[in-house]
Amino acid sequence: xxxxxxxxxxxxxxxxxxxxxxxxxxxxxxxxxxxxxxxxxxxxxxxxxxxxxxxxxxxxxxxxxxxxxxxxxxxxxxxxxxxxxxxxxxxxxxxxxxxxxxxxxxxxxxxxxxxxxxxxxxxxxxxxxxxxxxxxxxxxxxxxxxxxxxxxxxxxxxxxxxxxxxxxxxxxxxxxxxxxxxxxxxxxxxxxxxxxxxxxxxxxxxxxxxxxxxxxxxxxxxxxxxxxxxxxxxxxxxxxxxxxxxxxxxxxxxxxxxxxxxxxxxxxxxxxxxxxxxxxxxxxxxxxxxxxxxxxxxxxxxxxxxx
Amino acid sequence: xxxxxxxxxxxxxxxxxxxxxxxxxxxxxxxxxxxxxxxxxxxxxxxxxxxxxxxxxxxxxxxxxxxxxxxxxxxxxxxxxxxxxxxxxxxxxxxxxxxxxxxxxxxxxxxxxxxxxxxx
Lengths: 307, 120
Hints:
Shape of chain B: globular
Largest sheet of chain A: 5 strands, mixed
Order of helices and strands of chain A: HHHHHHHHHEEHEHEHEHH
Largest interface: A-B, 20 and 22 residues
Distance between the termini of chain A: 69 Å
Mean pLDDT of chain A: 88
Helix content of chain B: 40-55%
Number of domains of chain B: 1
Structural class of chain B: alpha/beta
CATH topology of chain B: Transcription Regulator spoIIAA
Low-confidence stretches of chain B: none
Structural class of chain A: alpha/beta
Oligomer: heterodimer
Distance between the termini of chain B: 34 Å
């Protein structure tokens, strides 16, 4: 998952260098952080305890930790996470690690605001510890190095959320695209495209492209586009229908639009949409009958033929 | 000169199969050649097969549409056949729909549309 996020975010050596430069994370900072490792180890428990005090004190975040055992488990993970700040490294491996943790939080639904608030608590507690252990000048310098890497971490954390969303949206769009434009062969050289749901411009394009391809593939003489499932027919939808009809016509195939309810008919006329080039019918059944009729076929009642 | 675009005559139908990308100049001279061919013959129908096109601009599309209208004035019905999906999509997106022209999926249907019966 996190490697995919690295890809989505285009997080490579170049991006790493640019981001480190922007957050002023220098090699000297990393060296200093590595030097602070014993200090960090001394205070890990204090920092992590304060961190969870904050999280457990708020009902929105406390709900992520149902029992003592869960708290104990995350405290251990948090200690590792905390100590990684003092390893003196900030390379792609480090970023990937941070992304992994961010992705885990995103997955359980811990939103960025809690993440950022928790980082603030980190810095607050660390500041206290630094000024207790070191002289003011030294403490300030140490705090600056820590702050730089923490802000770098925060940027990566925020990116995780963005990457996760981009990833989700991408997968949804793909699913929607596949689901939203089915083309069904209802009879020899007669196709049906039932449209369900809102039609935006992207989907309108998709509808046209899919339909044109299928018409040629199937060498269809007639195409029925059923819009009974389209909740709102406005000028944009009407326009896309007209365009699709025109494009299909240029292939040598006729379009029949069905599912024109009374409100849709009213809207189309009130919008001044010229639908004179389209064959339209109120119900799908009539559309199919019309298509058959135009291909010189008809549905007959067997009982009547027999008599 | 249309160069390599032959205009064939089958019965009373003229058949033009365009298998190359049409430049503006070639399209214009094709229009001339087709109209003179109609004038010379007793053609009642014209089929223009464009299955070889994978792109077309509005200028060439207009020349073809105009050709159809001119042929109609001279008494020959025109059917354009074999337009590819991507060409149709492009034309429509450019706002050009060739409303005056008739279309067919393929050559067979174009001839059928013109009521042309080939000798069996």
